[in-house]
Design brief:
With 196 residues, the protein is of the alpha/beta class. It has one domain: DHBP synthase, CATH 3.90.870. 26% of the residues lie in helices and 19% in strands. It is built from six helices and nine strands. It has a nine-stranded mixed β-sheet with strand order 7-1-2-6-3-5-4-8-9, with helices on both faces. A hairpin with a 4-residue loop joins strand 8 and strand 9. Helix 1 crosses helix 5. It is globular, with a radius of gyration of 16 Å. It starts with 5 loop residues before the first helix and ends in a 7-residue tail after the last strand.
């Protein structure tokens, strides 16, 4: 599949197909949560490596997580401080998270809002998407739509002309990943965001 327009990319995503677009970290390989197994297959990714849910707004993320009022307040303050941005929060998953999203760890879900105008435009039209970096498992993340189109010819990759005006801050540094332990935060991966 060649590079596609923004409209076609959104349409492909809504139909449950694999798509790829830039974010504020590395380009994403994405699909609607119900079809998450497409990502595992395309990447040849082990089922024990969780995917993350990316959305355009924090309100949307609340559908996929569940916690006490105190926990939700703590999570909200973390989101307010760092999102949109390169921080993934691993939180207890609600019943709305399809089991195939994280087959080995169905009780948690990583959530994030990218600080990228083009990614937010897409996500605001598709709803939350299951995402990961666009690369074969164990290989370095691909950083351009051209590389992704070559590696994944069946994936609808966004035409670079659609975001030529947007300053691409893709430095190839993944998001920082933190997990809620029930009491506090545990850093699972140090990435682009340094927590205060």
């Amino acid at each position: 599949m060649d590079h596609v327009s923004l409209i076609n990319l959104v349409s492909n995503a809504r139909q449950g197909k694999l798509v790829s677009f830039p974010t504020d970290t590395v380009p994403a390989l994405a699909t609607v949560p119900e079809f998450a197994e497409l990502i595992f297959t395309a990447k040849q990714r082990s089922q024990d490596k969780p995917l993350i849910l990316m959305a355009a707004t924090t309100e949307e993320l609340w559908n996929y997580v569940v916690g006490s009022p105190e926990e939700c307040q703590e999570w909200q303050s973390m989101m307010d401080k760092y999102l949109p941005g390169a921080l993934t929060l691993v939180l207890p998953a609600s019943k709305n998270v399809p089991k195939n999203l994280n087959p080995q760890q169905p009780n948690t879900i990583g959530v994030r809002i990218p600080k990228s105008a083009i990614a937010q435009t897409i996500l605001s039209q598709t709803g939350a998407l299951a995402t990961t970096s666009a690369n074969l498992s164990g290989q370095p993340a691909l950083l351009t739509m051209e590389e992704i189109a070559v590696q994944f010819p069946d994936v609808a990759t966004l035409d670079p002309r659609e975001f030529a005006s947007e300053e691409l801050n893709t430095k190839g540094v993944p998001s920082t990943v933190i997990k809620w332990t029930g009491k506090d935060w545990q850093i699972l991966r140090q990435g682009a965001v340094i927590l205060e």
